[in-house]
Fold this sequence. Notes:
Elements (H helix, E strand, L loop, with lengths): L2 H17 L9 E2 L2 E6 L5 E7 L12 E7 L2 H11 L4 E2 L5 E5 H6 L2 H5 L12 E5 L3 H11 L4 H11 L7 H9 L6 E7 L5 E10 L2 E6 L1 H9 L8 E8 L2 E20 L5 E14 L9 H29 L6 H6 L7 H8 L4 E13 L10
Parallel strand pairs: 1-5, 2-6, 6-7, 7-8, 13-14
Antiparallel strand pairs: 2-3, 3-4, 8-9, 9-10, 11-12, 12-13
Amino acid sequence: MNRKTLVALSLLSLLLAACERTKIIDQLSIVNTIGFDIQEDGQLKATSLFPDYTKSKSQENPEIRKTRGNTSTMLIQRTNVQSKNPIELSKTQVIVFGEDFAKRGIGHIVDTVFNNPLIATDIQVAVVTPSASKYLETVKKSGSLTIADTITQNYNTSSLPRSNLHIFLNNYYGQGRDPYMPLLKHGSESNVYVDGVALFKDDRYKVSLDNNQVFFLGILDEYKHSGYFELPIKKGSKKGTFVIRTMKNKPEWRNINPGPEPKLDLSLNAFFIIREYPDWINLHEQKDIHLLEKAINKKLKIEIAKLITICKENGVDPLGLGDRFRAHDRNWDKEKFYKDQYKKMKVNIKIETTVIQAGIKREGKGVE
Length: 368
């Protein structure tokens, strides 16, 4: 490359940089959270939360705006009309849907808002109750925009499956799998908390899983989780409860046999820490370790089977099992599979449980 070419390229890059419009944060309304509801007359309702950086450099005391309309584009435009500064969508962190809207179908928002190039795919999406409008009003009253942080914390340090817009869209557009979102509620202190997972069929919220069921859904996610779960234990006439924490989970789907009555094997290697246990359990005794492992193994097998049954009965596939059969059947047909074959699918569950460490003992007996 000669000298003249280098000079020309350098000048061009400077010109392009000069074309970028400077945006001053104090002169923008940066939307943190957008919520969507459906009205009785079929109109859309958008509720937006954004911090006012002209008053504070933090995200406290958020402003709220509400608009109605027939299209998502006009909802954003009408929000912009209500604001003293131009609306900025590129820093949006969360998009939430009222429960009724999610059950009717969010396809319109998926096709428009989700595909807006200004919206990043790493933002969080969720279903909220009772409606997005009421939910975000409570968030405003609490004065803190922590929805995204709460969701992220729950899949980083608990059993919630990984969740963001990118994962939702991958499952939404992917063949042989269905999307899901966290289900959010407000606690008695108006704090944000995850109350399970909303499972979708195409663009409709079909069924929810509670947090106990989410624990087992998380175990079947290849992402490393560290959720807690409480189990009963019995030894002779003694009964008690112990708590496990997931350390590592490795699910593998094997022996995939497509057909009118599809079959496959689930092989799960799971490693746990015992965090709390009855006084009469001795973790220095190998027989007591085996007793705990047996109880965990049994519970996992029962609950995972229940989870798969819930998915089959509701025709939802958050585990992407249809995609696995599709990879082994060149004639795989989505409609035929979920209409005729999915409910007949048989899953042989094989679980190997290992207790790798002990934690806090009950009744003040110290730590093992």
